[in-house]
Amino acid sequence: MKKKITLKQIARELEVSISTVSKALKNSKEISRDTTEKIQAFAKLYHYKPNNIALSLKNRRTKNIGVIIPDIVHHFFTTVFRGIEKYADTRGYNVIACVSDESFEKEVINMEMLANGSIDGFIMALSAETQRKNDFHHLMEILDQGMPLVLFDRVTDEVICDKVVINDFESAYMATKKLIEDGRKRIALITTESYLNVSEKRAQGYCNALKDHGLELDKNLILRLPYQFEDEKKSEAFFASTNMDAVLCVNEIFAVRAMRIAQANGKKIPEDISFIGFTDGIISKLANPALTSIAQHGERMGNVAAKMLIEKIEQDDEIEQEEATYKTEVIEATLIERESTIN
Amino acid sequence: MKKKITLKQIARELEVSISTVSKALKNSKEISRDTTEKIQAFAKLYHYKPNNIALSLKNRRTKNIGVIIPDIVHHFFTTVFRGIEKYADTRGYNVIACVSDESFEKEVINMEMLANGSIDGFIMALSAETQRKNDFHHLMEILDQGMPLVLFDRVTDEVICDKVVINDFESAYMATKKLIEDGRKRIALITTESYLNVSEKRAQGYCNALKDHGLELDKNLILRLPYQFEDEKKSEAFFASTNMDAVLCVNEIFAVRAMRIAQANGKKIPEDISFIGFTDGIISKLANPALTSIAQHGERMGNVAAKMLIEKIEQDDEIEQEEATYKTEVIEATLIERESTIN
DNA sequence: GTTAACAACGAAAACGGTTTCGTGTTGATA
DNA sequence: TATCAACACGAAACCGTTTTCGTTGTTAAC
Predict the structure, then answer these.
(1) Structural domains of chain B ordered from first start
(2) Closest to A307 (Cα-Cα) out of A94, A88, A159, A139
(3) Which nucleotides of D are covered by protein (CB under 7 A)?
(4) Which residue from A284, B219, B254, B260 lies 20 to 30 Å from B247 (Cα-Cα)?
(5) H or E segment and range at residue B45
(6) CA-based angle B154:B159:B164, to the nearest 5?
(7) What does the pLDDT read at residue B278?
């Protein structure tokens, strides 16, 4: 078992100083050709690689970015994560992943852990509880310390920082409009109970589309389900008691569940009822019938978020003082038409 | 913008030495009550938290563990990841996640990046390419450096280290046996093309179960699909040309795809054909009909892997020299019966 | 009135690097 | 022969901690 070799050991072995070794390995021209070659050969032989921790301490830069997401067994979030990881990789950054589990407290704890030097910046989506409590002091604090932060998807206006979101309102509007243009008159909405900003925006888009096209908003056509827990009975009751010819769902899981219930009730999809869901994941593709859904392009989102973050991190050196400027990037969602709607 | 405060700054401000501050914050009884209180008050006021990087350097312990998985947008792997993260969290460890993307090279690069001090140990599942090439020198190297390693799911006998796997052979055997006992005679297997050890073991279990129950192995009943890329035509041809009354699939995606093709061919599930898949994810639950599948208990697996790793990490101090002993934990998979089989 | 013990604190080394700033040696130049 | 660059290298500071080992000043004991 050979522990990793250090500069000091190389120096001792070769009877030179630590500084000489360090310089030789960086091809400094201060060091003679002979010595440099000797040192480099020795280093290669022993697989010398500088210790990242030491470098981080010296450079005050870890080359790590922290990602905090509400859930990891979740198609959309992992998609974003992949985008982040891929981009980070190209820039030599590692990703430390934390899961808040939709809990405010875990979010705070995780942030505090990471903020003490472990990372150079954060990318995160707010937990449901955080959005409900409307408490963002932990975000303010890390911003105050000068640590870059990029919020994605689950964002809030109360924190001033870089953000990347999809056009939730517009895409829900477009989807609803499509249903209307398909001749649908009684369009239902299945959304979440808890206060998630994305769901709200989607609901807004839905409402506005109805209004703009002369359909009136029927509260009975809106079903609010708990975000995490399944409530099959509530959905069944909804379908049993309500008459509708189309359904817009704020995620694909709601949509597929709803389709099953509708089918069990003898409805034909899309002839009797059309379905559109958000999040174009594997579930949408494999559903029977395949679900028309709104692709959120999570990987792009992750890419953009990582890019924004790293740019901020690396400019921080140069500009330092100058007042930071923040932007919000909007990723355009696109409707992927499949079998659950008529076309 | 207040940058994080350091011991040195507190010391200067309070006109004491750095050592005094450090000790006071740890409630050392070397320091007087007065001084301690003063220092602690000041530290709290400025939200002092020790710098993790400095601690890591000093303790030669990062409290980070590296997780390398082939894919992140993948139900089973994220489930394991969640298990790892949850356990790590309880022990005060952070998780650095890298994705090998099924590529040997990326796996090597990622490992090298992390092995230079960033983490205290690895948890990983081998990439497909690594398994195909049978090249494990990178694993050997990090083991040789004394860094703990736990392999899960995609493991190999050629590397001696801790492992956690499911009983692939037995569970495939049991599933096949169940199909036989249900009266099925022509049981197909849909597995992967590339050489993944888990697929092979499952195939073995399938074959042995057939043999033990007096059914002969028909090569025409075995379909090998590319792991990542969809090959719908190949599957369709398979179903068109082959007569079968049951199908065992090595993952749920294969299974759901296959069900759709069978249904399109006018087959009734489970009356005409039964289906069983591996990986009991959301896809199995939402499929129509719901898919009977073999739960791999990924979260448990992650839990166990993390526990094994952290134990090894933390015992390393004490025992140091003593020859390490490695174990392989087996997580028992369980069959979840749903609508795609008769019961 | 010594001396020993103790309380309260500081100096310095160490973790593993990078980098600035000497310093001694050489060869060329005046 | 004295002077000066250039060359090749080392010493030391620094990043932010922890921890060992002094070093004081005070007090109790003899």
Answers:
(1) 7-50 (no CATH), 58-165+299-331 (3.40.50.2300), 168-297 (3.40.50.2300)
(2) A88
(3) 7-12, 14-21
(4) A284
(5) helix B33-45
(6) 45
(7) 95
Q: In the 3-class helix/strand/coil scheme, how is B88-131 assigned residue by residue?
A: HHHCCCEEEEEECCCCHHHHHHHHHHHHCCCCCEEEECCCHHHH
- Is the pLDDT at A235 greater than 70? The verdict is yes
Closest residue (Cα, C1') to C19: A19
Residue B314 DSSP SS3: helix
Cβ separation B116–A51 shorter than 8 A: yes
In angstroms, what separates the C-alpha of B277 from chain A's closest C-alpha?
A: 14
With a CB cutoff of 8 Å and minimum separation 6, the contacts of A52 are: A63, B113, B116, B117, B118
Nearest nt to B36, CA vs C1'? C8
Q: Is it true that the peptide bond before A289 is cis, omega within 30 degrees of 0?
A: yes
CB contact under 8 A, B99 and A114: no
CA dihedral A141→A147→A151→A157, nearest 10 degrees, is 50
Asked whether the beta carbons of residue B117 and residue A287 sit closer than 8 angstroms, the reply is no
Q: Cα distance from B175 to chain A (closest Cα, Å)? A: 23
Calculate how close chain B gets to A102, using CA atoms only, in Å: 13
Q: What sign has the CA pseudo-torsion A254, A255, A260, A261?
A: positive
A96/B99 touch (CB, cutoff 8 Å), yes or no: no
Q: Compute and round to an integer the Cα radius of gyration of chain B.
A: 26
Strands (E) located in B203-343: 222-225, 246-249, 274-278, 292-295, 328-331, 334-336
CB contact under 8 A, A53 and B49: no
What is the interface size between A and B, counted as CB pairs within 8 Å? 141
Instruction: Give CA separation, B149 vs A41, B43, B164, in Å.
Output: 29, 38, 11
| Series of mean pLDDT values for 10-residue runs along chain B (343 residues) | 91 96 95 96 96 97 97 96 98 97 96 96 97 96 95 97 97 97 96 88 96 95 84 90 96 94 95 96 93 97 98 76 84 97 88
Structure confidence at residue B232 (pLDDT): 82
CB A191 within 8 A of CB A222: yes
**What distance in Å separates the CA atoms of residue B125 and residue B153, rounded to the nearest whole number?**
6
Q: To which H or E segment does residue A96 belong?
A: strand A94-99
Place of tokens 């369709």: B236
Inter-residue contact A254 to A277 (CB < 8 Å)? yes
SS3 A31: coil
Band of residue A80 on the pLDDT scale cut at 50, 70, 90: very high
In the sheet that holds A274-278, the strands lie side by side as: A222-225, A187-192, A246-249, A274-278, A292-295, A334-336
Burial status of residue B231 (CB atoms within 10 A of its CB: 0-12, 13-18, 19 or more): middle
Among B94, B232, B291, B316, which would you mutate to test the A interface (most chain A Cβ atoms within 10 Å of its Cβ)? Answer: B94
CA B20 to C1' C3 (Å) is 29
